Amino acid sequence: MKITALIARYLLGLIFLVFGLNGFLHFIHSALPSGTAGQFVGALVASNYLVVVFLLQLVSAILLLVNRHVPLALTLLAPIIVNILIFHILMAPSGLALAIVVTLLWVVVFLSVRSAFAGLLQQRVPAQGLR
Questions:
Q1: Among candidate residues 120, 109, 89, 115, the one with its CA nearest the CA of residue 16
Q2: Separation between Cα atoms, residue 51 and residue 102, nearest integer Å
Q3: pLDDT tens digits for range 19-39
Q4: What is the distance between the alpha carbons of residues 76 and 106, in angstroms, rounded to a whole number?
Q5: 10 Å Cβ neighbour count for 61?
Q6: Where exactly are the structural domains of the chain?
């Protein structure tokens, strides 16, 4: 499992490094999707929202690749991955395969560091009195 988690962490880091850098350097050329997906991406580009997303992808990718603050990197990537999945499920199904692969890689890395999330996954937290 350690080798699998290591490979998954590196792949996840590389994927987000490439796509995060592409957001700034535009070395992977692609046409704007048609229909609702194109309108959605156009609005994200026009509002500069994607600049923040690409920056978060780069920071997370670097953290994953250097094996520092991996739980933080996973926490930053989780909402991005959820949005990627929703986008491809609802508007652009052609990219769904890569979104699922990224999600599975995230899950494998998460399972390797799940103890760091133990406090977040508690069903109940005992009440503490004021001092």
A1: 109
A2: 20
A3: 999 999 999 998 889 999 999
A4: 11
A5: 23
A6: 2-28+45-115
